[in-house]
Amino acid sequence: MMQKLEPTIQDYKKFSLGASVIFILVASYFLWKGKDIKLIYGFYGVATVFLLVGLLHPKLVKPIYLGWMKFAYILGEVNTRIILFLVFVLTILPIGILFRILRKDLLDSKLDKSKESYWIKREKKELDIEGYYKHF
Question: Nearest-CA neighbor of 54 among 14, 26, 6?
Fold first, then answer.
Protein backbone atom coordinates (compact mmCIF):
# COMPACT_ATOMS: atom_id res chain seq x y z
CA MET A 1 0.00 0.00 0.00
CA MET A 2 1.40 3.37 -1.01
CA GLN A 3 1.79 5.89 1.76
CA LYS A 4 0.60 9.42 1.22
CA LEU A 5 3.34 11.59 -0.19
CA GLU A 6 4.02 14.89 1.55
CA PRO A 7 6.78 16.39 -0.58
CA THR A 8 8.55 19.55 0.48
CA ILE A 9 9.97 22.40 -1.59
CA GLN A 10 13.40 20.85 -1.07
CA ASP A 11 12.13 17.59 -2.61
CA TYR A 12 10.94 19.47 -5.70
CA LYS A 13 14.31 21.22 -6.00
CA LYS A 14 16.23 17.95 -5.68
CA PHE A 15 13.96 16.31 -8.25
CA SER A 16 14.40 19.20 -10.68
CA LEU A 17 18.16 19.16 -10.28
CA GLY A 18 18.30 15.39 -10.71
CA ALA A 19 16.07 15.46 -13.79
CA SER A 20 18.13 18.24 -15.37
CA VAL A 21 21.35 16.27 -14.75
CA ILE A 22 19.81 13.19 -16.38
CA PHE A 23 18.65 15.18 -19.41
CA ILE A 24 22.09 16.79 -19.73
CA LEU A 25 23.75 13.37 -19.59
CA VAL A 26 21.40 11.98 -22.24
CA ALA A 27 21.96 15.01 -24.48
CA SER A 28 25.72 14.75 -24.03
CA TYR A 29 25.61 11.06 -24.91
CA PHE A 30 23.64 11.82 -28.08
CA LEU A 31 26.12 14.59 -28.92
CA TRP A 32 29.02 12.16 -28.45
CA LYS A 33 27.30 9.58 -30.68
CA GLY A 34 26.59 12.21 -33.36
CA LYS A 35 22.79 12.06 -33.25
CA ASP A 36 20.42 14.67 -34.67
CA ILE A 37 21.23 18.16 -33.36
CA LYS A 38 17.53 18.99 -32.87
CA LEU A 39 17.20 16.06 -30.50
CA ILE A 40 20.27 17.20 -28.59
CA TYR A 41 18.98 20.78 -28.31
CA GLY A 42 15.64 19.38 -27.15
CA PHE A 43 17.23 17.46 -24.29
CA TYR A 44 19.40 20.42 -23.30
CA GLY A 45 16.30 22.63 -23.43
CA VAL A 46 14.28 20.33 -21.19
CA ALA A 47 17.24 20.18 -18.78
CA THR A 48 17.41 23.97 -18.70
CA VAL A 49 13.67 24.29 -18.09
CA PHE A 50 13.81 21.75 -15.26
CA LEU A 51 16.75 23.55 -13.69
CA LEU A 52 15.23 27.04 -13.92
CA VAL A 53 11.77 25.99 -12.76
CA GLY A 54 13.29 23.99 -9.90
CA LEU A 55 15.33 26.95 -8.73
CA LEU A 56 12.84 29.77 -9.33
CA HIS A 57 9.42 28.19 -8.75
CA PRO A 58 9.76 24.59 -7.52
CA LYS A 59 6.04 24.03 -6.87
CA LEU A 60 5.44 23.93 -10.63
CA VAL A 61 7.28 20.61 -10.68
CA LYS A 62 4.77 19.00 -8.28
CA PRO A 63 2.60 17.16 -10.89
CA ILE A 64 5.65 15.70 -12.63
CA TYR A 65 7.20 14.79 -9.27
CA LEU A 66 4.06 13.04 -8.01
CA GLY A 67 3.63 11.18 -11.30
CA TRP A 68 7.24 10.05 -11.20
CA MET A 69 6.91 8.89 -7.59
CA LYS A 70 3.77 6.87 -8.42
CA PHE A 71 5.62 5.29 -11.33
CA ALA A 72 8.60 4.54 -9.06
CA TYR A 73 6.28 2.94 -6.48
CA ILE A 74 4.71 0.68 -9.11
CA LEU A 75 8.13 -0.19 -10.49
CA GLY A 76 9.33 -1.03 -6.98
CA GLU A 77 6.36 -3.32 -6.38
CA VAL A 78 6.99 -5.19 -9.63
CA ASN A 79 10.75 -5.45 -9.05
CA THR A 80 10.25 -6.73 -5.51
CA ARG A 81 8.08 -9.57 -6.72
CA ILE A 82 10.48 -10.44 -9.54
CA ILE A 83 13.50 -10.45 -7.21
CA LEU A 84 11.72 -12.54 -4.55
CA PHE A 85 10.59 -15.01 -7.22
CA LEU A 86 14.13 -15.33 -8.56
CA VAL A 87 15.58 -15.81 -5.07
CA PHE A 88 13.04 -18.56 -4.43
CA VAL A 89 13.57 -20.29 -7.78
CA LEU A 90 17.36 -20.04 -7.69
CA THR A 91 17.95 -20.97 -4.03
CA ILE A 92 15.06 -22.53 -2.13
CA LEU A 93 13.61 -24.63 -4.95
CA PRO A 94 16.89 -26.36 -5.92
CA ILE A 95 17.63 -27.14 -2.27
CA GLY A 96 14.16 -28.65 -1.86
CA ILE A 97 14.56 -30.72 -5.02
CA LEU A 98 18.01 -31.90 -3.89
CA PHE A 99 16.66 -32.96 -0.49
CA ARG A 100 13.83 -34.87 -2.15
CA ILE A 101 16.28 -36.64 -4.45
CA LEU A 102 18.52 -37.50 -1.48
CA ARG A 103 15.44 -38.38 0.61
CA LYS A 104 16.46 -36.03 3.40
CA ASP A 105 13.81 -34.99 5.91
CA LEU A 106 15.43 -32.32 8.06
CA LEU A 107 12.22 -31.60 9.94
CA ASP A 108 11.53 -35.27 10.70
CA SER A 109 7.97 -34.77 9.52
CA LYS A 110 7.13 -38.38 8.59
CA LEU A 111 4.85 -40.09 11.07
CA ASP A 112 6.19 -43.18 12.79
CA LYS A 113 3.43 -45.07 14.59
CA SER A 114 5.93 -47.15 16.54
CA LYS A 115 7.27 -44.07 18.36
CA GLU A 116 5.68 -43.11 21.64
CA SER A 117 6.82 -39.50 21.41
CA TYR A 118 8.67 -37.23 19.07
CA TRP A 119 10.39 -35.45 21.95
CA ILE A 120 14.13 -35.11 21.39
CA LYS A 121 16.06 -35.55 24.60
CA ARG A 122 19.04 -33.26 25.03
CA GLU A 123 21.97 -33.77 27.32
CA LYS A 124 22.02 -31.40 30.26
CA LYS A 125 24.83 -28.90 30.14
CA GLU A 126 26.50 -27.63 33.24
CA LEU A 127 25.48 -24.05 33.88
CA ASP A 128 28.24 -21.54 34.39
CA ILE A 129 28.34 -17.80 34.83
CA GLU A 130 30.22 -17.27 31.53
CA GLY A 131 27.32 -18.68 29.54
CA TYR A 132 25.02 -16.17 31.18
CA TYR A 133 27.07 -13.23 29.95
CA LYS A 134 27.78 -14.65 26.48
CA HIS A 135 24.37 -15.39 25.03
CA PHE A 136 25.45 -15.08 21.46
Answer: 14
Q: Report the amino acid identity of residue 8.
A: T
pLDDT at 92: 94
Full DSSP string of the chain: -PPPP---HHHHHHHHHHHHHHHHHHHHHHHHHT--HHHHHHHHHHHHHHHHHHHH-GGGGHHHHHHHHHHHHHHHHHHHHHHHHHHIIIIIHHHHHHHHHHT--TT--S--TT-S--PPP-PPPPP-HHHHH---
pTM for the model: 0.65
Contact 44, 23 (CB under 8 A): yes
